[in-house]
Amino acid sequence: DAMGTQKEIARKIIHKNADYILQVKGNQQTLMDDIREYFEKDVFTEKKDALEKAERYYKDLCKEHGRIEKREYSVENDIEWFRQRHPEWEGLAGIGACVSTVTEKGNTVTAVNYAIYSRKGMTAAEYGKSERAHWGIENSLHWVLDIAFREDESRIRAGNAAENMNMARHIGVNLLKQEKSCKMGIASKRKKCGYDMAYLYKVLGGLNTGIK
């Protein structure tokens, strides 16, 4: 399953002497509940000045074209209790929360995202920098998926179909990016695969299927 895959990814990253930051998703309910409960009871209720002084809290504010976005980052590195509850996450060193508040045209929307990470002693500012980089990549990829595969128009909802199709689109984008012989955009390459079987086989060659 998706969570099992994430655990394996975390293990491989640690064995390569690297660090990970992994977003906690809704399908990881126990993990999500433990992190949410901790931050809501023991962190969000603390004075932000004290947290900021301890480098456990960081805030950035962006004002652009009438849109105001405030992101508040919190981290906790003293998590022995959490590691005991979730020993399957190799290298786990801390948990983080990002509270994003966006105000635009008089409407305010707040969202909270949680993550686990392996870097020891991570500060809230470092966590914020990593989160911003992550969402920059996510937004860029979402734009490509929407343009090339019309992802936002998809009506696939049944069971795990939406998640499976999302994974298939990601694989498709990666394969199309790897294919360098055709100087076209991703959307044009995808269309070319539909009418040029030789080119389709060339793109699928990135899967190491043996197709030539």
TrEMBL record:
Entry-linked InterPro entries: ISAs1_transpos, Transposase_11, Transposase_11-like
GO biological process per UniProt: DNA transposition
UniProt domain Transposase IS4-like: residue ranges: 3-175
Record-linked Pfam families: DDE_Tnp_1
Transmembrane segments: none
A single GO molecular function term of this UniProt record: transposase activity
PANTHER family the record matches: H REPEAT-ASSOCIATED PREDICTED TRANSPOSASE, PROTEIN YBFL-RELATED
Protein name in UniProt: Transposase IS4-like domain-containing protein
Organism encoding this protein: Eubacterium plexicaudatum ASF492
